[in-house]
Prior knowledge:
Chain A contains 23 helices and two strands. Chain A is an all-alpha fold. Chain A has one domain (2-497). In chain A, helix 6 (106-140) packs parallel to helix 13. Chain B has two domains: 2-66; 76-139, no CATH class. In chain B, 69% of the residues lie in helices and 0% in strands. In chain B, helix 2 packs antiparallel against helix 3.
Amino acid sequence: xxxxxxxxxxxxxxxxxxxxxxxxxxxxxxxxxxxxxxxxxxxxxxxxxxxxxxxxxxxxxxxxxxxxxxxxxxxxxxxxxxxxxxxxxxxxxxxxxxxxxxxxxxxxxxxxxxxxxxxxxxxxxxxxxxxxxxxxxxxxxxxxxxxxxxxxxxxxxxxxxxxxxxxxxxxxxxxxxxxxxxxxxxxxxxxxxxxxxxxxxxxxxxxxxxxxxxxxxxxxxxxxxxxxxxxxxxxxxxxxxxxxxxxxxxxxxxxxxxxxxxxxxxxxxxxxxxxxxxxxxxxxxxxxxxxxxxxxxxxxxxxxxxxxxxxxxxxxxxxxxxxxxxxxxxxxxxxxxxxxxxxxxxxxxxxxxxxxxxxxxxxxxxxxxxxxxxxxxxxxxxxxxxxxxxxxxxxxxxxxxxxxxxxxxxxxxxxxxxxxxxxxxxxxxxxxxxxxxxxxxxxxxxxxxxxxxxxxxxxxxxxxxxxxxxxxxxxxxxxxxxxxxxxxxxxxxxxxxx
Amino acid sequence: xxxxxxxxxxxxxxxxxxxxxxxxxxxxxxxxxxxxxxxxxxxxxxxxxxxxxxxxxxxxxxxxxxxxxxxxxxxxxxxxxxxxxxxxxxxxxxxxxxxxxxxxxxxxxxxxxxxxxxxxxxxxxxxxxxxxxxxxxxxxxxxxxxxxxx
Lengths: 498, 150
């Protein structure tokens, strides 16, 4: 069986001492920032990306991925114990998780959250292993027109399904594409928008934008919010869920995994939509829906499985097609490119050790999280007492050194300062910077594929409509746009995300 | 009318997009546009800036109709001091070395917060400087002099 052969290869890579260590660092740091409100996985991955320049790409990706799904676990821990969602994806867990904690069943809630997440993680690892290769195989046959249309579909879907104003999200994608233009043109060698600044010849650094907007901008935004957080800690209680708890949770966990996996492969839908969807499903299916909001274990099990499934399945379009389905996946793509790997279906054939190693490590990382997290709950809760005034200068230090060390030039740091200011301006104007990052990552590839597609077709733009696969992507794009523009659906969309 | 526009969220978002789009189009006019068959370096940016301006105009129009206000609070202190701390860090890394750059970075950025306790910030500076020197310079071997001239 090829699948077993591949997974065997993957575990061989992931179980090497170095990769285990990076996996551990990743999930540890991920849990840490998942626990701490005010710093998310986007900012952390952006900050730590430069630290991975000297390690092999597979170790770098393993660590960055660990931060990503580790943050999900950390976020649910604080949701349950102190009613404080460390990440937006665990907001739903607060509802019943915190109620369980107040009834002295925090341990059971934490354990069920961990088990649910682990189950979802395991299933999704298998799903990626099963469906990754066939998807990549199909994608290998794509030519430039198909790629261009696929990227168009990815970007439009991500912008349209994401939270916030649809028009602004689309505009931010275009702005991101435009920022990707800066630097030397691959075709003619002309330096575009460089203003004779020699540091810009290679384009704007990916880390510069990511750290500027998501780390510096986020701190300014946090410091502008006068609300102080107050922490109430409750007793954890027994960590072992009862047999009854397990019985009640199995169904929600399975349903949550399926739901999360489905939303996971859709671009733009964050884990919060998956977990919210799962909560609604469980509430509808429950014999006694009134228990929800008063410590129903199903309200913890389902959403926790869903948000983890979503997070893991986001890797499918990223690894097989090179399409980022979320901001974090855009960062992962950036990490691949920094290491000189062209994202897309060729990753699987040309870098099998990287692909399967990463997948195997995600399962190992999930296991580590279950084993690590429960005993360390006390440590995580005590971390919440670290005041933000000590935390944000540390984030600034990591950001500054991270950016400076990418190219050893101060210009990048100045540029990041500028993007910090721009980031806060965009936030105030209601323009989400996440679509911008997606556009920025895909920009150069999109231009290249557009150029090639038009060359092949002798300059005829109809090429995107005459090739069947490309046409299918365009039709889906247009359909999604039409559906989302219809006012009735748009109003309901407000309910889902709000 | 003018006062109403001053805080109109979508109007300014649209303005920002139109502004950037127009600037990009202005810059891109120097690059050869080419044809669809042979796209010049100006082709992609010119089309993108056109789309951006169109989006900007639409969003401005939405803003004029809805009149939604900018509501987010903004700490001017943080807005000025945090980018400033990065600027100073960049300058000092080139002119004075790692330690002075770190000290200034931590102090200036800490001053952006609501509370500033001198002793606490001093301790934080020492901890962060030592920890990052250990991690980045001795651990990862980044070639930064601790203090220039020594």
